[in-house]
Amino acid sequence: MMNKQRGKTRLLITIFLINLAYVINLSYANASGDEFPGRKLYPAVKYITIKDLKNKLNEVVVVDVRSKYEYQTLRIKGARHIAISNKKFVHEMKQLRAKVGDKDIVVYCNGKTCMKSYKAASKCQDYDVNGVVAYDAGIMDWAKIYPHDSVLLGKSPIDTDDLIIRKKFNSYLLTPDEFEKQFSKKKSIVVDLRDSFQRDATGIYVGLEVRINIDDKKALKTIIEKAKKEEKALFIYDAAGKQIRWLMYFLEANNTKEYYFMKGGARGYFKSLQEKYTS
């Protein structure tokens, strides 16, 4: 029994160190002043700029690799959806490659500090799916600049005034330290919103949190109603502080009374630990 517990403890420590090492690498990339840190972390991945993608939009195949919910909320007009979290991701990308011939396939996510587009392109390289490049400026930048080539909640062209503005979104953000302090003080429910492949087998608050996939609307509605009934606040975090922005549309539509997000998500949490123990 003790050996099993020790093994579990070693596993959790290993996972923690892997996460911390990743954040340190990302922090160094950010510290160099790079707007796109993923370009250094994934040097083998080819990328396309926002202007070049606009100019070539009718010549390439665009794939959204985020969750289904994020795709349904806001996407590039004409984009297909193949989530990197899908176990059949490689298989579906191979099928797409065979279908579209020699056209470049452009994968995108939430951009800049969101690494899904790089990871998707890198995974395609590993499995010999050629001609896959990453658009790394993200969907929000695209929607603001090219509203006629965007779809918001099923409508296109979009009205950029309907996008949740940064100021309002920021008002719901708490630093990792404040996040912990507040959910410890309040009647609360902590939600880990990360995709399964992003969790690395463990959560930040093991035993204290609920894990929900952002695509599982039934589970999301259940937890919202539970929070209302029990008069509890929702404290939600994702991988990098990106998915929560899309979840905000759902929370508002369901009249969620009190909710907060962790600034920077799990990545921000591990970065704050790095700063504490290396300063």
UniProtKB/TrEMBL annotation:
Pfam families assigned: Rhodanese
TM ranges: none
SMART domains from the UniProt entry: RHOD
Rhodanese domain span: 56-151
InterPro entries documented for this protein: GlpE_sulfurtransferase, Rhodanese-like_dom, Rhodanese-like_dom_sf
CDD domains (UniProt xref): RHOD
Name of the protein this chain belongs to: Rhodanese domain-containing protein
Organism listed in the record: hydrothermal vent metagenome
